[in-house]
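BUG: 3D viewer hangs when loading the predicted structure for this chain

Environment: internal workstation, default settings.
Expected: structure renders.
Actual: progress bar stalls at 90%.

Input used:
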Amino acid sequence: MIRPSFSPNPWTDLTTMWSYPYLRNALLAGSIVAVIASSVGWMMVQRRQSFLGHTLAVVSFPGACLALLFTLPASIGYYGATLIAALIARQSSDAQVADDRRSNATVGTVQAVALAIGLLVISHSSSFLTSTTSLLFGSFLGITTGEVLLLAVVGLVTGAAFIAIARPLLLATFDATEARAMGIPVDTLNVMFVVLLALVVAATSQITGALLVFALLVMPGATAQTLTPKVWRGCAISVALGLLTIWLGIGCSFFLPRLPLGFCVTSVGFTAYVIAQVVVTVRSRPHVQGALA
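Structure tokens produced before the viewer hung:
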């Protein structure tokens, strides 16, 4: 099959992609994942818990391998492994101790054990030779309608839960003492957020692969934080960037088949981050020059 190439009209390109059923599933699944990952990821950036998010992403890989080894859907392994790891590492969910050495050591230990388990499973089964790349780096091929529906359910649940706890969680993030004085259950919110993060990481891993989850989990949130100090405006920008990243990434991977999906998605996210840094630097330069004059 000869794939069409990019055209000067983006709408034509979008229509072309939408005409392929497997790409339609990829775009729908990617959009769901982009919304929940970029919003929850934005909160993760605010709470300085990127290391925990990275660990959960790493853990999703052996989880998927174990599920496939027992002829189960990979999604079961993704969700099961990340939830278990989140509960084990839940002590790092308190934003006030996110940089504590003991917390980071616990999270790092979980990550090392998870990678070792993944390596053990792969070394004892030759059936992973063709699927390891997609598990690690993602693929838009083979996303079924059932998987899209499952992601939609996860997206609705996590999205509703995030909206419900976002405001008190934000207060607990920046001033846990004040939040406790107001009667906000800070510890419960911290655990709830870690569970939400685990669900989002598991969902995102099915699109980007375990090693490139950060393309949707961190980059949009970090870019939005660079562009604006406004809280909710930053969250909205993060979601918009997440959608742009996944749609452009899938489009580039489709029209340029030699470029894998994970590379395209990550490159788009990184490009947006670099542009944001340049824009902020240029904007701040006159103020710096004025202060030095």
